[in-house]
Amino acid sequence: MIAALLAAATATAQAQTTTPAQAQAPEPAAAPTPSTPHATPPAPSFAFLTTPPLGLPPMPKPSGYTPTAAMFALGERLFFDPLLSRDRTVSCASCHPAATGFAHPDPLPKGIDGQLALRHAPALWNRGYGALQRWDGASPSLEAFVLEPIADAREMGFGVDAAIARLRADAHYGPAFAAAFDQPADAQGLQRALATYVRGIALGDAPYDRFLRGDADALTPQQRHGQWLFESKGGCWQCHTPPLFTDEGFHATGVGARDGELAAGRMTATGDAADRGRFKTPTLRGLRLTAPYMHDGSQRTLADVVDFYARGGAADVPLDPKMRGLDLSPAERAALVAFLASL
Ligand code: HEC
Ligand code: HEC
Question: Could you tell me which CATH number the domain at 207-341 has?
Answer without folding.
Answer: 1.10.760.10
